[in-house]
Specification:
Blueprint (H helix, E strand, L loop, with lengths): L1 H36 L2 H8 L4 H6 L10 H33 L3 H5 L5 H34 L6 H9 L1 H16 L5 H24 L17 H6 L4 H24 L6
Helix pairs in contact: 1-4, 1-6, 4-6, 4-8, 4-9, 6-7, 6-8, 8-9, 8-11
Length: 265
């Protein structure tokens, strides 16, 4: 428990600012919907003039921005962007923080198994990413209350937020695993951020080219598509696929941490 509380103290400031930034983005973004909804036909015609790559980069796809659910789908993509980057950093810091602060040797001489140390750090990462998911959902609902929309999408907001759980755990696993490679955890962590960036690019290609449908299985950004979540519901097949990836990433991450020599710089 002491180690858990210690990890919370070491990471609460970053968590605070990430959540504040995301909350402000969502509330302001939802309020902006009133301006778009005032003349949806004109705004839709204006957006139709933009090239498809713009819609792909912004994660808009085939969303109808004239509806509150479609507008939320665009904001939700930014939640994924921010949350995935944050989740990757949480995974990397499970390994890198102690090396950066040169406290890893002191920590490992404690009468605690190495796997237990990493498990506690992982629990802290899951705690913070859970806070992020809940905070983003509540911020969205507060924004919807402020503009008093007639369409109730509360259930869709919580369903979409639930789809973030497996995706963000995957990014935590990627960050954790990559940080165990190379001579320094921070250097290995750069590989984790590279995976994050590549997965975003693959998401763009997936939205731009219909013939690349199989790209969906390469990028957690598209594991649960917002259009499907809003209109078709939950995808259990993608959930099983996500669980398989999570188990694989965390298993190899723990194995690497257990078998890698302690690196003190």
């Amino acid at each position: 428990m002491k180690l858990f509380l210690h990890e919370l103290r070491m990471s609460w400031k970053v968590a605070l600012w990430v959540n504040i930034g995301t909350i402000v983005l969502l509330i302001v973004g939802v309020i902006k919907y009133t301006g778009f909804a005032s003349d949806p036909t004109a705004n839709t015609n204006l957006l139709a003039q933009f090239p498809k790559v713009v819609f792909a980069v912004l994660g808009m796809g085939d969303l109808d921005l004239g509806t509150v659910s479609g507008f939320y789908g665009v904001l939700f993509f930014y939640v994924i962007l921010i949350g995935a980057a944050y989740a990757t950093s949480l995974g990397i810091n499970c390994i890198a923080r102690e090396e950066n602060e040169q406290t890893i040797e002191f920590l490992l001489v404690k009468p605690i198994a190495r796997w237990h140390i990493l498990a506690v750090k992982l629990a802290v990462a899951l705690f913070w990413i859970s806070i992020f998911i809940v905070a983003s959902a509540i911020a969205t609902l507060i924004g919807l209350q402020l503009i008093e929309v007639t369409q109730d999408i509360t259930s869709q907001v919580w369903l979409a937020s639930a789809s973030l759980i497996p995706r963000f755990i995957i990014y935590i696993g990627i960050g954790l695993l990559t940080a165990t490679f190379l001579n320094k955890a921070t250097t290995g962590g750069l590989i984790g951020y590279s995976f994050y960036a590549i997965s975003w690019l693959l998401s763009i290609f997936y939205l731009m080219f219909t013939q690349l449908a199989w790209f969906r299985f390469l990028t957690p950004f598209q594991f649960y598509q917002i259009q499907d979540l809003l209109h078709l519901g939950w995808s259990w097949s993608m959930t099983l696929y996500s669980v398989g990836l999570i188990i694989t990433l965390l298993t190899f991450g723990f194995w690497r941490y257990q078998t890698t020599d302690v690196r003190v710089h």
